[in-house]
Design brief:
Nucleotide Exchange Factor Grpe, Chain A, domain 2; single chain; 184 residues; three-stranded mixed sheet
């Protein structure tokens, strides 16, 4: 220790030797060994792997849930569509009876009113009449029950000249094919 009387300040000087520096370095190395850092790194890696695995499982479960929702929606739509088609098929004979009654008595307002009501109901449900007369026979939509000679020379072969029973579609599905008379 060294004192200076002029300034009345004291300064302590501590001497450090090279061996003291080596001791400090060794203590620092033993206080912070490299292995705990590698254990920490291992734990971090393990936890990151676990996070990735759980994230993958989460994404798979979320995708499966979305697929299940989609399938359930399609199933509900299918059941609803099949039920509506079943009801429509039951109503078609009623419409056929109304059309037949109109052929016998075309001026009866009661029958005309029934026909309009059924046609409006069909339109609301999505049932559409298959147009036939004047069209070329299409087995997907028409059932030829009779062939006749061409009514006019301009009539093409396989042209529908008369409709015996109207065909109907529900959306893109044929409820009933039209029974038609076709030219030879």
């Amino acid at each position: 220790m060294h004192e200076n009387n002029d300034n009345k300040n004291s300064v302590d000087i501590e001497s450090v030797s090279v061996s003291d520096i080596k001791d400090i370095e060794q203590k620092t190395e033993t206080a912070q060994p490299a292995e705990p850092q590698s254990d920490t790194d291992k734990k971090i890696t393990e936890l990151n792997d676990k996070i990735a695995e759980l994230n993958d499982k989460y994404l798979r479960v979320a995708a499966e849930l979305e697929n299940t929702r989609r399938r359930a929606t399609l199933d509900i739509e299918s059941v609803s569509r099949n039920r509506a088609m079943g009801v429509a098929e039951k109503i078609l004979p009623v419409m056929d009876a109304v059309v037949a009654a109109l052929k016998h008595n075309p001026n009866d307002e009661g029958i005309k009113s029934m026909e309009r009501a059924i046609q409006n109901a069909f339109a609301q449900i999505g049932i559409v009449k298959i147009e036939s007369v004047g069209e070329i026979l299409n087995p997907q939509f028409h059932n030829a029950i009779q062939m006749v000679d061409k009514p006019t020379p301009n009539t093409k072969t396989n042209t529908i000249v008369d409709e015996m029973q109207t065909g109907y579609m529900f959306g893109d599905t044929v409820l009933r094919t039209a029974m038609v008379v076709v030219s030879k």
